[in-house]
Predict the 3D structure of the following.
Amino acid sequence: MNHVVSGYAEGNAAEVFRALVAGEQQPAIIEGQGVEAEDIPPICGASTMGVVEISRGCGLGCSFCTIGRERMQHLPVETIVADAQTNLAAGMGGIAALSEDCFRYGGAGNETDPAALIDLLERLRQLDDLRLIQTDHANIMSIAGFSDQELTRVRELLVGDSGAELPWVNVGVETASGELLARSGGEAKMIGASHDEWGDICATQLRRLIAAGWAPMVSILVGLPGETPEDVQRTLAWIRDMKNERVMIFPVVYAAIDGSETLTRAALTKLHWRLVRECYSLNFKWTPRMYADNQRAVGVPSARRTLLQALGVAQVIEWKTLLAWRAAGARA
């Protein structure tokens, strides 16, 4: 019988495995038990893609995100450094600093603490053989908590001497309609910003990231509860306003956490597909460049990079054809 452990599991993983080895009956789905950040043990071997957890949880409480319900905790610097050393000792050329909001590392609650993140990255930069440090997620209002100089400094520390030119970070915009975001349980993401200002604030903060040398990778939710054609049109106009920027925008179809409300492909309108195509006109331009840049920065051999780029060109052609076909068959 197969088993799935749901959630964080440092608190009971060992107990679960001992029970299974002993042949004791266990449910198919086992609820994991987390521990406080200071009690999370260092990893014993290299992690997939050199992932090193620096914080966990988010705590903003967005109703469309499971992690939003978990309070944010930050791992101690010594644990993070030890995990990075383990990956480097196994031959990794870089690490991925895992967090639901990298710019909130060290901060209390929703607050940012730029000095704490910079201090952590400076410690990591003291490690031998560390090339690129990659991040994953960030919130718009956390970016706003950093000065232009601090954003540039974080980027410099992530890149080091790897030569990377397009370090990316995934930023959750979700929609340019602040009213829709609030109605959908995402008001906490705006942290005091008015609904009318949300789209402009997102554009401003993304442009600050770009000016500091980043390549933002934005997520947009399609089909949020209560979405109107006007909401879609507002987000589409926002995407078009960003078309000359170094940015990638990935549309994600909304699915309720409890499975009760999911937008099917057949329910996507021509306006939805127009939005998707506008997003991918940017993605087809910047994603291959970002991918190649990151691979070069971590030391992937040139022959392999060339092969992957060739495969990427073929996939772009396939996706363009597929998007055109889906849009033509969509309902009005």
User: Anything to note?
Assistant: Residues 93 and 300 are 9 Å apart (CA to CA).
